[in-house]
Specification:
The protein has about 170 residues and is α+β, with helices and mostly antiparallel strands. The chain contains three helices and ten strands; from the N terminus they run E-E-H-H-E-E-E-E-E-H-E-E-E. The strands form two sheets. An eight-stranded antiparallel beta sheet has the order 1-6-10-8-3-4-2-5. About 25% of the residues are buried.
């Protein structure tokens, strides 16, 4: 079982890209999230200074849930950025960025084992879904996220923290 702890987290203001999808779609050959990651990394090197990440984390966010884990949701990949500076507009890559706010919440934070990406994340989500099938604690579905530390990724392996918003 994954290690987990409760943590209060303030809101996250992120810039990145997103797509509407569902777990059913992601389980099949037409999953959109792998292509979203590819697109994010293609754009990341072209951001202007104000659109550059303000820390060493990349966030995989799940929000705007239609219902719960069985319904549609928005998958978003992004990073924090300097909110005091306007986003560049025009033909730059920053113009294609969306901006979102993940609301502050109480989270159950799960930490994956260190292992091959994306396998450890897929395994972790399977354990998380199984955990919430019987847990007294209820998910809030207001915004969940995976936090990837760019400094931890080495030789295709990493450990990832997954934040699940829970009801008070």
């Amino acid at each position: 079982m994954l290690k987990s702890k409760l943590e209060q987290q303030g809101s996250l203001k992120l810039a990145g890209i997103g797509v509407r999808t569902s777990n059913q779609e992601e389980a099949g050959p037409s999953g959109r999230i792998p292509a979203l990651w590819t697109q994010y990394f293609q754009l990341a090197g072209t951001y202007s200074n104000e659109a550059q990440a303000q820390d060493d984390f990349i966030y995989g966010v799940y929000l705007d849930y239609e219902t719960d884990a069985s319904g549609a949701y928005t998958a978003f990949i992004g990073h924090t950025y300097n909110l005091d500076l306007p986003m560049t507009t025009g033909a730059s890559a920053a113009a294609s960025l969306q901006q979102i706010v993940v609301p502050s919440s109480k989270y159950r934070v799960f930490e994956t084992r260190r292992g091959p990406m994306p396998q450890v994340v897929i395994e972790a989500w399977q354990e998380i879904w199984a955990y919430y099938e019987t847990a007294a604690e209820q998910r809030a579905y207001t915004g969940d996220f995976e936090r990837y530390d760019k400094n931890d990724y080495q030789d295709g392996e990493a450990s990832v923290r997954i934040y699940i918003a829970i009801k008070d």
